[in-house]
Specification:
alpha+beta, two-stranded antiparallel sheet, 136 residues, 5 helices, five-stranded mixed β-sheet
Length: 136
């Protein structure tokens, strides 16, 4: 099993430059995209402001990395129709996501341990330039 923690990079800019309604639209679009891009049986949930968690049952590390990379690319290709703070139509593009991955092979089956490891890997992805997948 694997746990992925995903964080939208520089998401505050979306809210600050386009508006909070656009930010909400982006979060909804990313949630739908993630749910539609993972394998059958995988679980996706929101894990905070602009963070998401994905649980991948029966996923070896190579499979987890592959799924994480597929999600990262899908988010980068996303175009979200929304409105800006002036009520004008706006197509939001250029979203990226950093992803930390932890697997039970290395960290056991306790969810708190997996989340701590995935969070550390997520922080490493952000520290290495963002829009990356890092394995714990």
């Amino acid at each position: 099993m694997a746990v992925l923690l995903l964080d939208l990079d520089h998401f505050k800019r979306v809210n600050d430059e386009v508006g909070h309604l656009a930010g909400d639209s982006a979060l909804s679009a990313v949630a739908l995209l993630l749910s539609g891009t993972v394998r059958g049986g995988d679980l996706v949930g929101r894990f905070g402001g602009e963070e998401f968690v994905v649980l991948l049952p029966d996923a070896e590390p190579a499979v987890a990395r592959s799924v994480a990379q597929r999600l990262r690319h899908a988010v980068a290709d996303l175009a979200v129709p929304t409105v800006d703070t002036n009520g004008r139509e706006h197509l939001l593009t250029g979203l990226t996501v950093s992803i930390g991955v932890a697997t039970t092979q290395r960290f056991g089956y306790e969810l708190p341990d997996l989340l701590v490891a995935a969070d550390a890997a997520l922080l490493a992805a952000k520290g290495c330039g963002r829009n990356l997948v890092e394995m714990a």
